[in-house]
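Lecture 7, part B: from sequences to assemblies.

Below are the input chains for today's worked example.
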Amino acid sequence: MTGETIRPRDARELRQAVEWALNDGVTLDVRGSGSKLDLGKPMQCDQVLDVSGVSGIVDYAPEELVVTLRAGTPMRDVEALLAQRNQMLAFEPPDLGPLLGRAPGEGTLVGAVMGNLAGPRRLSAGAARDHLLGFSGVNGRGEAFKSGGRVMKNVTGYDLSKLLAGSWGTLAVLDQVSVKVLPAPDQTRTLVLQGLDDTAAVTAMCAAMGSPHEVSGAAHVGDRTALRIEGVAPSVEARLKGLRELLAASGAVMEELATFESRTFWREVRDVVPLEVAPDAIVWRLSCPPTEGPAIVARIRSQRPSAKAFYDWSGGLIWLALPPVADAEHLLVRAALGATGGHAMLIRAPVATRASVPVLHPQSPALAALAARVKESFDPKGLFNPGRMVSL
Amino acid sequence: MQMPPLDPDILRRRGAIVAALKAIVPGEGVIDDLDGMRPYECDALSAYRQMPLVVVLPETVDQVAAILRYCQDHKVKVVPRGAGTSLSGGSMPVGDAILLGMAKFNRVLEIDYANRCARVQPGVTNLGVTKAVEHEGFYYAPDPSSQIACSIGGNVAENSGGVHCLKYGLTTNNLLGIEMVLMNGEVVRLGGKHLDSGGYDLLGLMTGSEGLLGVVTEVTVRLLRKPSTARAVLLGFPTEAGAADCVAAVIASGIIPGGMEMMDKDAIQCAENYVGAGYPLDAEGLLVVELDGPEIEVDYLVARVEEIARGRGATTVRVSRDEQERVLFWAGRKAAFPAVGQISPDYMCLDGSVPRGHLVQVLAEMREMSKSYGLRVVNVFHAGDGNLHPLILFDANDPDELRRAEEFGADILRLCVRVGGVLTGEHGVGIEKRDLMGEQFTEIDLDQQMRVKCAFDPDHLLNPGKMFPKLRRCAELGRVTVHDNKLPFPDIPRF
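Predicted structure of the full complex, as structure tokens:
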């Protein structure tokens, strides 16, 4: 049962709240806007620690490519601020709200960092982990600490920012982060190849990604294979032409999306709209070597013909929808990855399913033990988001 | 530089330790004679030298695991080493520790162009990766200046950078996976050929951990397609402020150059005398800006950079006309260190990072310090990402000059931290900056880092004496203090 909500207003109160939880042996459900409550393992915590009150931009230096902000700052505020100076979060954080049955635009930037989320530009620009320059926060001992900084190049001490990104709030409660930003492209155009099957599409996407044409998005949705080209006008024009020549041998009919249509298309890919899932469908996210994608999907479809899927990241990211089954078909899905070394994360399923099935890909015993020791090094009493990543 | 006192018990047991290693690594893989160990007595921070207890050069992952397991069981310290090119003493031997050299892990295991990655052993050189794939038009992006010699395993340990980081990232942004051996002998794989494994990002943590957490035995790197065109622009300014303004203006305009380097007047003159790159000797600040990509884009961006530079008062604007001239423009920058070596018996290379907006202030303060210490300083740096490489000129034969140089260097790094920067941008902490960590971090910050270390190496056996100014026992760090008095915190809003 989750009891009352504690809502600190600044870093000092946040630290006090953790100190109190430590003293009283109280577990905390740490959340920002709560937009990802239905993602990951469900928890049974004593209290909610809501950091949305620790909010606001601290510093934005466009010419330094860095923004510093408090942990509860809404994503939409950050994006609006950056847009004023024609900059962006290059990792293209998805808004999974609607996929999870919520309103769009609810999340916080730190929430996206905590899930290490990234959109189509993951391929060329990296994920949230690649853009978190530094943070300050409170560990499970109630101690305020920091790591990293606000400069681009920094190897001073362990890179704890990498560890915090993707930790789902289980290691520390952040109060402030510095994030790298990049110039937004002048133009965004998309070359669409029609009618390729999955294997031919992935071959075309990998060829495009291996070309000098600097493709920043490669997705295959239905029978459309989309390649995104961004940048200054003359360059975009030349690269589109180069891509057409490169892919002429595929025999596919080609069309182009202009900037506005392109942006809509890639936003929808980012937010998993093309999966067109039924309200009760199970949704998986599979990460794999790009060329293995079609075989993995084929293995799943051979057993579940009604499975729906589309590919992002040149074939290396598969969004998969399955009809509702109590165990979310986790054994079947993970078996389909086989020896590719990839991993599968359960994104959407009823709470009972997420409670009983490993949401994140199971790790080897040695790795799981190491991860548990790392967790303990930050949060020895298990105060923060217990059971969020792995079953307790 | 103080290293932890040698453990007399280990020194007494040396014979048994050597015998145990010889049982694990047969043949010539164990070096225990003084002449044979001599090449390992230092790394590229050559002011500090120390003979290791014994050198072992394993050839298989099983051997690495057996060595570490033996060392864990017998509480023997281990210093891992790649090519020994660390500029911060990261691979400097420790007198009562085994030196674990990974040089025999020198094979490229797999190249997968379709998935744009290569699986290599850690002893492969940085340039070796690019050499293995360049005939297909690919390359490995991080390019530390030691790339001809430094190893990929060392790059992972140090999170190495280079001149192209601003656009292409550091090592950490260009890795997909590693295999490593933990101190207890367990072998774990992190990542693979895919992106973003779930669970804690231990791959990200390992990158830049300076050999304190595990020994890397295999690395999967991302490959990039080589840009079709690259052109360099030389921009000379009558003031350093003009050059620094130009850097900020280029980035604010939305251009991310492949590289953007700055040199001060002394550096320009040294480099010009040394290689004759055609640098303008009247300039106070010189920028070398490289733009890469499709030819039409490079042309467009070169024109914009030229325009921005002229608007900021550039007195020299020259664009490389061909590949030969591009290489020549870079030759001066790349020769800056040896060029400085010609005018001074010794020099010390620093590595602080600062927010770019503070560049001019930092340079000015450095000049003042230079006067008060009576030592010259020459500045070459990665201006695009604010990573400074001040070179302090001194004569190591004069003990007082060495002392002043060390103090001057420490003051420069303190200055970097004071303006919001950090102690090291790409060379690592090692032993060189170890005792300055308290300038940037609180004790709590450092204790948290050390607790992470304890999760991997509870007895502090791996690369001891590096990174942390003082060691605390893991058992002591692990204790949780709970205050007796229950604090009410009445003013925090609740619902």
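Note for the exam: Residues 399-418 of chain B form the longest helix (20 residues). Keep this in mind when comparing with the next example.
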